[in-house]
Specification:
- The structure is a single chain.
- The chain is of the alpha/beta class.
- The protein folds into three domains: about 140 residues, 4-Layer Sandwich (Glutamine Phosphoribosylpyrophosphate, subunit 1, domain 1), CATH 3.60.20.10; about 200 residues, Glucose-6-phosphate isomerase like protein, domain 1 (Rossmann fold); about 70 residues, Rossmann fold, CATH 3.40.50.10490.
- The chain is about 40% helix and about 20% strand.
- It is built from 14 helices and 18 strands.
- It has a five-stranded antiparallel sheet, with helices on one face.
- It is globular, with a radius of gyration of 24 Å.
- It starts with a helix and ends in a 21-residue tail after the last strand.
Length: about 425
């Protein structure tokens, strides 16, 4: 997304370019084409120096069929190093069938890719050195198997995902959680006066649950903010606040921008991500790895669940250096150990859930209601219904339903949807 696309379009029109669409991609293509540079790499650099905004870009030239120029700012670009071949993608999920050796481009970095080599540099023409990373992702993680789609598959993978998220992190002897990736000693935890979770969409809703858990278990004031709004205001940043940047991919641009804004203001920021090599993980340098496993479906399922579990562990860790009694901590540890089995029990009720769906399939509008931790779960449920079924849904705090929205409830059966 180009922030100065309007100005660039006007400049192109004045130069005699006839634009065929309103897309930012076409603007970029014309900027490259108008360059008088000798090489495609130089032409792309020249074009991108005029651009304000975000992009994940691949440029090909019909006159140079053996070369691709890739660049990124805000949007992920990954190079896959194969056997006498190079592959470029926006996510490692597209690469695992061909190679497990990858290189991640950083913001304002450009790569020239040929079949047998690549080189990288910055937009201001300084060379950079990139070392390949080996991704541990079995190819079967990206196969459907017996499932009809990846969302269904990943819903059923919640059992293993929650087990992975808690494995090795539950300390029975001290009745606490081990989260060494946070790099917070007990003395550091005691200094925290507030915890703020920052994320977008499902990550933001999970952060709301996390804030509630931290307040309840650690008795530290906590809240959650949408990252998409964070960088457009001038937030008050307290050095005694721990900020948690939440993102499944670790590449969410608004969340990464919030991390950088917080770091500019001297804040302590840790990540809660599902990709330890992602931009947010690298920017934070410390955090909680979600262990959800690959998530191919766009709609979050197991990653949302593991976010909430990770925040329960965080609340447990912070609580035990404060006033959380050992007996209550032991009950929470026991409950977390039972969680995979409880999820499995729910998933076995798929036929019953399908019957409920049939009962309400003609509904055109749906309300999700919840109280306390159930409120962000309701928000996540309403979002899922909207983005998967394209039906209208809203979420409300249970106590607020009577303060206006209840006026929309009628005894009439909804007409069938068309």
């Amino acid at each position: 997304m180009l922030d100065n696309a309007t100005d660039l379009r006007a400049r192109l029109v004045r130069a005699g370019v006839r634009l065929m669409s309103e897309t930012d991609s076409e603007v970029l293509a014309h900027l490259v084409a108008l360059s008088s540079a000798d090489t495609l790499e130089s032409a792309v650099r020249e074009a991108l120096r005029q651009v304000q905004g975000t992009f994940g870009l691949l440029v090909l030239d019909a006159q140079r069929p053996g070369e691709i120029v890739a660049a990124r700012r805000g949007s992920p670009v990954v190079l896959g190093i194969g056997d006498r071949e190079m592959i470029v993608a926006s996510d490692t999920a597209a690469l695992v069938r061909y190679t497990q050796r990858v290189v991640y481009l950083d913001d304002d970095e450009i790569a020239v890719v040929r079949a047998d080599e690549f080189r990288t540099g910055t937009l201001d023409d300084r060379r950079t050195t990139k070392m390949p990373t080996v991704i541990e992702a079995p190819e079967e993680d990206y196969e459907l198997g017996e499932h009809s789609d990846f969302m269904h598959k990943e819903m059923h993978e919640q059992v293993e995902a929650v087990d992975r998220c808690t494995r090795g992190r539950l300390d029975d002897a001290a009745a606490t959680a081990r989260l060494d990736g946070l790099r917070l000693e007990p003395r550091d935890c005691r200094k925290i006066q507030r915890v703020t979770f920052v994320g977008c969409g499902s990550a933001y809703y999970a952060g709301q649950i996390g804030a509630n858990l931290v307040e309840e278990l650690a008795r530290i004031p906590a809240d959650a903010e949408p990252a998409s709004e964070f960088r457009y205001r001038n937030p008050i940043v307290d050095p005694d606040t721990l900020y948690v940047a939440v993102s499944q991919s670790g590449e969410t641009h608004d969340t990464l921008a919030a991390v950088r804004e917080l770091q500019r203001k001297g804040a302590t920021v840790v990540g809660a991500v599902n990709n330890a090599s992602s931009s947010i993980a690298r920017a934070c340098g410390a955090g909680v790895f979600l262990h959800a496993g690959p998530e191919v479906s766009v709609a979050a399922t197991k990653s949302f669940t593991t976010m909430v579990v990770a925040f329960a562990l965080m609340g447990l860790k912070l609580g035990r250096v404060r006033d959380l009694p050992a007996a209550r901590a032991e009950r929470l540890i026991g409950a977390l150990r039972q969680l995979p089995g409880q999820i499995e029990t729910v998933l076995k009720q798929e036929d019953h859930i399908t019957a409920i769906v049939r009962r309400y399939r003609d509904a055109r509008h749906l309300f999700y209601v919840g109280r306390v931790r159930g409120w962000p779960v309701a928000r996540e449920g309403a979002q899922k219904l909207k983005e998967i079924s394209y039906l209208h849904a809203e979420a409300y705090q249970a106590g607020e339903l009577k303060h206006g929205p209840l006026a929309l409830i009628t005894p009439r059966k909804c007409p069938p949807s068309r």
